[in-house]
Design brief:
- It contains one helix and 20 strands.
- By secondary structure, it is mostly beta strands.
- The protein has one domain (3-270): Distorted Sandwich (Beta-galactosidase, Chain A, domain 5).
- Strands 1, 2, 3, 4, 9, 14, 15, 18 and 19 form a nine-stranded mixed beta sheet that branches. Strands 5-6-7-8-20-17-16-12-13 form a nine-stranded antiparallel beta sheet, with helices on one face. It has a two-stranded antiparallel sheet with strand order 10-11.
- Strand 10 and strand 11 (136-138) form a beta hairpin.
- The longest helix is centred in the C-terminal third of the chain and has 15 residues, at 256-270.
Length: 272
């Protein structure tokens, strides 16, 4: 374990989404499958899902992981001449994330974002207790502990208009155009801070995902992945141009307020 960073980061075997196993020193019984890239979305289309399949051995970073000290990185070329490059750097109780998308084609691509995913299946202190709805199972208890920020305040997903009925719940950022892709259903509420946070069952620990630029947050409680997402937003990328978005995967003691405190520290560091 990398004690200096308080995090153990290892390559997740057989991942189809550039997965890393993340263990926080303060909760060693919880393993988070951080799926760095389930796919690239532009507009209401994608370039194919679950393509980032890499060996567990360390390599040169092209279609495989590269390791420099404690840092992990890779480049994955997609069809339509889109290259994704991701760097993951352990920093105390968080991972510093640098996502970049390079347009190596001849045409402009618009409304570009990357599909991240964090399942809770192997994290018992965070994984929801399913209950039966007739013949359908629901993991919607997750919504009672999953927060976005609306009007600068943390709001449970269960408190949104569709929180009681929609297993594939999503929210668009305030003031931004509607996004419609996949099985997600947007609730009328809009978040204002690009941060999503999940507290443990005892509300004493929180994992959160944040990006400097993100317009879509979501969660899946329709199956046993019981996962949550925040997609980094890259906007329009001209031919030959690269767009970069930084973010952080945060682990904190306390509830959603502690995640907001850690997020502000991240922003302060990035703006130096």
């Amino acid at each position: 374990m990398n004690i200096k960073a308080n995090l153990d980061v290892t390559i997740r075997p057989k991942s189809e989404a550039g997965g890393l196993n993340i263990i926080w020193r303060h909760m060693p019984g919880d393993v988070f499958d951080f799926r760095t890239c389930e796919g690239v979305v532009y507009g209401n289309k994608d370039l194919g899902l679950f393509q980032v399949k890499m060996p567990t051995s360390i390599g040169n970073g092209i279609r495989c992981w590269r390791k420099d000290g404690n840092n992990f990185s890779y480049m994955w070329p997609y069809k339509d001449n889109v290259d994704v490059h991701i760097v993951v750097e352990p920093k105390d109780d968080h991972l510093l994330l640098t996502y970049s998308v390079l347009n190596v084609g001849q045409r402009t691509i618009k409304d570009v974002q990357i599909h991240t995913c964090i399942p809770t299946t192997e994290a018992p202190n965070f994984y929801p207790q399913p209950f039966d709805k007739g013949t359908e199972k629901s993991w919607s208890e997750l919504y009672d502990r999953l927060f976005v920020w609306i009007n600068q305040r943390p709001v449970k997903l269960s408190s949104t208009s569709l929180g009681a009925s929609q297993p594939h719940l999503s929210l668009v950022q305030k003031g931004k155009p509607e996004i419609n892709w996949g099985w997600w259903v947007n609730t009328p509420e809009r978040f204002d801070i690009p941060l999503i946070a999940l507290t443990s069952h005892n509300r004493k620990s929180t994992i959160a995902l944040a990006f400097e630029n993100a317009r879509w947050a979501s969660s899946n409680t329709g199956d046993d992945r019981a996962c949550f997402h925040l997609f980094p937003w890259f906007g329009t990328i001209e031919p030959g141009q690269r767009s970069v978005v930084t973010g952080s995967l945060l682990f904190t003691k306390g509830g959603p307020e502690s995640a907001m405190h850690a997020y502000r520290k991240f922003l302060t560091h990035q703006n130096r």
